[in-house]
Amino acid sequence: MQPGDKKKEKAHTDKKTIGKGDEMIFIYHDFGGTHTTSMAAAIHLRLLPDREWTDEEILSIPDFNQLKKKDAGHLFFKGTDHDGHDVYTIGKRSSKYVLPAMKDVSKMLLSRYDRDGKIIFSNTSPVVPPVMTAGGFLARGLGLDAVGVPLLVRGAKQCRVYLEKLVDETKRSAHESHAGRIIDLENKYYQYKKEKKL
User: Bridge partners of 30?
Assistant: First the structure.
């Protein structure tokens, strides 16, 4: 462990019993579903230390830089958080139809099965810095990991604080009493800008 580390905690794999009306599902989404979504899910599940991350810690994030084009449009279960809520990620690629379809299905299921819980869609795309976009294209698009992965790691370090704030806001919004059953967070406030203070 490094100085200032908080002990890493594993995500809960056993769901605790939660009352009807308390259930929530968190879905983090972006273009590829393998970089900022994976990072956001790891933050949400407390898998990362509360300090600057090392290269090894970034590369050990589940599914980080591992998914391919064929994985787009598929939900990936990341774990159950410490409040008993499931966390998923999905990559939309360039499709404008994935998210609307998912929201419609979510509404249908909540209504049909008389569930009072919430489903929260949180967009992580705004936090992506240019160096991560370049790294993702080189690593995932062209298969040039030797060039792309170092850029992805640098980008992950650049947007860490943005993602931590975004995840905090996602959780806070989910618990607001006036929020609806389907919550759609675009997170434009967390658009990456160099030297921006959050």
Answer: 91
Q: Which of 8, 12, 27 is nearest to 123 (CA)?
A: 27
In the beta sheet, which residues pair with residue 12? 80
Residues in the chain: 198
pLDDT in tens, 106-145: 999 888 877 778 999 999 999 999 999 999 999 998 999 9
In angstroms, the CA 24 to CA 115 distance is 10
For residue range 138-150, list pLDDT tens digits in order: 999 899 999 999 9
If we measure between CA atoms, which residue out of 93, 89, 3, 86 comes closest to residue 51? 3
Between CA 161 and CA 77 the distance in angstroms is 24
Q: Which two tokens stand for residue 77?
A: 């279960």
Alpha-carbon gap, residue 168 to 44, rounded angstroms: 8
